Amino acid sequence: MRGMGTRRRWSYALGGLAAVVAWVAVYVNLARVARWITYTIAGLTPGTHLASAVEFFIFEAPKVLMLLVLVVFGVGIVRSFFTPERTRRMLAGRRESVGNVLAALLGTVTPFCSCSAVPLFIGFVTTGVPLGVTFSFLVSAPMVNEVALVLLFGLLGWKVAALYMSMGLLVAIVSGWTIGRLKLERFVEPWVFGLQSAAADEPDAPASWADRLRAGTTAVIGIVGRVWPYVLAGIAVGAGIHGYVPENFMASLMGRGAWWAVPLAVLIGIPMYSNAAGIIPVVQALLAKGAALGTVLAFMMAVIGLSLPETIILRKVLRPQLIAVFIGVVATGILVVGYVFNAMF
């Protein structure tokens, strides 16, 4: 039996190595394949708007999806260490300033999005997590997640991805800390505090590495299976912008020279309903056409972190005064990020 277990582990290891080698071989040849399909198979004329858009789409779509599969699998394994109950226990009882930082960091690796706002809020508050710490988590979870970072890395490079992550975490930490200082618990619906969270005291079930590998596979099926239409739609829009929008148009509309560009981008982004998978390919195309980095990042943060659906869901547990403070504080942080990036780049 022991020999069979060893052989099984070796077969898994060799199979995984073969899969990684095949992944790398395909990934490094995507640009060549995209040119071949565009100009040899499709017979499009180089330099035309259509050819530019088609080549962009054929290259970016598989590249982004391959990156997502690889990273989401790894993050799915990491997430198996952070169940909702364990996350709540890690945040409860912490000093508030430490809790804001920890909550923002946990938001980047835990499997929650803005759609989870109500159950998360109830679970956190009823287990003693301070209000400001809860908001740090709720800002970070949708805004700074593996999908956003993978797409930014694949489309814009590691420097932009690292800057976005650091600024997104800063917005989450400062927003939560500010809300915590304002002592706004009276604007939480009273019934929330009346609940008791029995789950907080339940022990976490032990997980083997086989379970964690299955968790990685489940994450790929669940996350990539859910977001791939948004990825393709976003890349299609980006391809259209890349191929057809004049070079100077976006620079004049979203350039760093216009002081009103950043607040306008935030106002446009808040009512939009999208996620990182759908909006980041559009961001890449806007930047390629001359839009300022800070303005575009502010737009993206507003779309992902201050979506209208999240606000509507939060109304079930928060009074309008607290929702207004939440939007105002986060929007102010996003505006600062936009202006800082425009001044630096």
Short description:
With 345 residues, this protein is mostly helical. The chain has a domain at 84-210 and 231-344.
Unreliably modeled segments: 196-203
- Report the strand count: 0
- What is the share of helical residues? over 70%
Please trace the helix and strand order, writing H or E for each element: HHHHHHHHHHHHHHHHH
Q: What is the C-alpha radius of gyration, as a whole number of Å? A: 22 Å
Tell me what portion of residues adopts beta-strand conformation.
under 5%
Largest sheet: none
The termini sit apart by 61 Å
Say what oligomer this is. single chain
Q: Helical element count?
A: 17
Mean pLDDT: 76
**Which structural class matches the secondary elements?**
mainly alpha
Shape: flat
Question: Keywords, please?
Answer:
single chain, 345 residues, mainly alpha, 17 helices, flat
Structural commentary:
With 345 residues, the protein is mostly helical. The protein has a domain at 84-210 and 231-344. It contains 17 helices and no strands. Helix 9 packs antiparallel against helix 17. The chain is flat. The protein starts with a helix and ends with a helix. Residues 196-203 have low confidence and may be disordered.
